[in-house]
Design goal:
Number of helices: 22
Strand content: 15-25%
CATH topology of the largest domain: D-amino Acid Aminotransferase, Chain A, domain 1
CATH superfamily of the largest domain: DNA ligase/mRNA capping enzyme
Bound molecules: adenosine-5'-triphosphate
Number of domains: 4
Largest sheet: 8 strands, mixed
Number of strands: 23
Length: 582
């Protein structure tokens, strides 16, 4: 298949805001002539998916990314289109979109030359060339990358240049999240609504256990839907973490859980997915990044203290104050992560691992086992004598009524935790990868009148500050994710909770632009728009209705608590989450 043919479909997808139309266009790509979907004897379904996602491999893969310095991207473009890097910077500043800028420049170049040097590229050549950029390492790697990119740009058409630019920024701006792509693919395998729902559930489950959409889609087409049904946890492949719903303390936890339930301390550290196979240990973050190298001390502890030969465990890693032996804050753990010399810092900030779930034991999937069985496996997996309290099963209690819940919550807070995560103990209390259902419910605050949970929102715009904040940003426009469209919709403005340190970070790191970014929706206009990459956690008093927002909601008394560097834009609070709190 020609890359140009893919780009034409992407351009049509980008033009529509109708979800069904988007999906049917996306299906067209995979319903092409079967010969088009094989190149050099290899099916190309995976490469098509990766190109649509704006990546070469799934994020957790650990393979090199494009990693091109902005200066080199400008230089490569300048070479290919014959315009100076400073002029390109000007155009880019205005549009805030590298893809549009490259497409525009390429078109101008085309108009000024009689014969273009365009040579058609297939999906495989495009992917291979991009992979070549990623793999250029060693001395002068940036110059090598620059030369390859300028070669690609020289041979491609304006439309292809646009999507190459988007790919470089890892933002295809199609308005299609992975789950929408799955929905679209499931329609190809089904002949009626019932079957489509079933196929979608199978694909989603497969993707949640093996979060590599390219591989899942290729497997479904080549080996059939049955092979997707058989996917189970594998050492080295991160499972999408199970997530919790939220409720206010006064709400009926007993009713929601359908009777007695388990409550566990909610530790305020970093989520850690532990993969163990003999002496081999891999650690994944909440975002499924491989963070093995950040915790050499954790690796040693796991090697010594986790009894099963093979296991996948869900845990929280926290910093410990070496003087008091008590749990330290999330910020202290993050400080440690920022240090280059981790070895020295390991003494100053020791860690403790709290295990709360088990997804695989000696090659056997535990996903379908009920909570109590998995909890028993967690407890039996830890060698208490060897680990000296450095790896523990998270504190847990079975709760039978409201008073017991409140008493356990208060104990949890006294011990320096964030509250509780309550967990169903019903026979169907399975581990549900990637799901935010009611089997797990978090309880963070007893105070009435406050939101039952904090929100993680993306900064989409800024207003200049006054007085003490003159010359810096004074307030921030925050957006929540509309999970159907993938757009970020303005939900509130915040100016409280900004420490001087945070003000500096935001001033230096936010990428401001003149025009509203394509995936942002806001009725109100800030002094500057922001390319949404930074996420802040906010607390608020109430969700109120608001005519000034496309969501119909706003937040009363919002205040920033901290930056959330551990979350991706796809993981921020959704408009639906906020609606639920109204
Ligand atoms: P979420 O992870 O639900 O999107 P979040 O990242 O904002 O939300 P919280 O809302 O604070 O985090 O709560 C969920 C997180 O709490 C989990 O992702 C996990 O890292 C952490 N956690 C701490 N203790 C537990 C526990 N006992 N069981 C499950 N999760 C726990």
């Amino acid at each position: 298949m020609l890359f140009m043919d893919l780009c034409k479909v992407l351009a049509r997808i980008e033009k529509t805001s109708k979800r069904l139309e988007m999906m049917s266009l996306f299906q067209e790509i995979f319903q092409s002539d079967p010969n088009e979907l094989v190149e050099d004897d290899e099916p190309i379904h995976d490469k098509l998916i990766y190109l649509c996602q704006g990546k070469l491999h799934p994020d957790w893969h650990g393979m090199p990314e494009l990693n091109m310095a902005k200066k080199m991207v400008l230089k490569a473009t300048a070479r290919a289109v014959g315009v100076s890097p400073s002029r390109i910077t000007e155009i880019l500043k205005k549009s805030g979109d590298l893809g549009n800028t490259m497409g525009y420049l390429k078109k101008k170049k085309q108009q000024s030359t009689l014969f273009g040097k365009e040579e058609p590229m297939t999906i495989t050549t495009t992917w291979n060339e991009l992979e070549r950029i990623a793999n250029a390492t060693g001395e002068n790697s940036q110059s090598k990358k620059m030369r390859i990119l300028s070669g690609i740009l020289a041979r491609c058409s304006p439309l292809e240049a646009k999507y190459i630019g988007r790919f470089i920024e890892s933002k295809m701006r199609l308005g299609m999240a992975d789950l929408t792509m799955i929905d679209a693919i499931s329609r190809i395998f089904a002949s009626d609504d019932e079957q489509q729902k079933e196929c979608k559930a199978i694909l989603e489950r497969g993707y949640n256990i093996y979060p590599d959409l390219g591989t899942i889609v290729k497997k479904a087409f080549i080996e059939g839907m049955k092979s997707i049904k058989q996917i189970s946890p594998v050492f080295g492949i991160p499972i999408r973490p199970m997530l919790a719903q939220r409720l206010e303390a006064s709400a009926g936890f007993i009713d929601k859980h359908g009777g007695s339930f388990a409550a566990e301390y909610k530790l305020d550290g970093e989520r850690l997915q532990i993969h163990k196979d003999g002496k081999d240990i891999i650690l994944f973050s909440r975002r499924l990044e491989n963070i093995t190298n950040q915790f050499p001390d954790a690796i040693r502890l796991i090697q010594d203290c986790i009894k099963p030969v093979q296991a996948i465990l869900d845990a929280e890693i926290v910093a410990i104050n070496p003087e008091t032996g008590k749990i330290d804050t999330f910020q202290v753990l993050m400080q440690r992560k920022r240090k280059h010399d981790i070895a020295a810092f390991m003494q100053e900030v020791p860690i403790r691992i709290y295990i709360f779930d088990a997804m695989m034991l000696d090659g056997r999937s535990l996903l379908e086992e009920p909570y109590l069985k998995r909890r028993e496996i967690v407890e039996n997996s830890i060698d208490d004598e060897k680990c000296d309290g450095n790896i523990v099963a998270v504190e847990q209690s079975i709760i039978n009524n409201h008073d017991e819940l409140i008493a356990f919550f208060e104990r949890a807070i006294m011990e320096g935790t964030e509250g509780l995560v309550t967990k169903s103990i019903a026979p169907d209390s399975t581990y549900q990868p990637g799901a935010r259902g009611w089997l797990w419910i978090k309880l963070k605050s007893l105070a009435d009148g406050k939101l039952p949970d904090t929100l993680d929102l993306a900064i989409i715009g800024v207003n200049w500050g006054e007085g003490r904040r003159a010359g810096r940003f004074g307030s921030f426009f925050l957006g929540a994710m509309n999970h159907e469209t993938g757009n970020l919709e303005m939900i509130t403005k915040v100016s409280s909770g900004i420490t001087d340190e945070l003000a500096d970070i935001l001033y230096n790191d936010l990428n401001t632009v003149e025009d509203i970014p394509p995936n942002v929706i806001s009725v109100e206009q800030p002094d500057k728009w922001v390319i949404p990459t930074m996420i802040v956690e906010i607390a608020g008093d109430q969700v109120t209705s608001s005519d000034g927002s496309t969501t119909g909601f706003s937040i009363r008394f919002p205040r920033i608590l901290r930056l959330r560097k551990d979350k991706k834009i796809e993981d921020i609070s959704t408009v639906d989450d906020i609606k639920q709190m109204a």
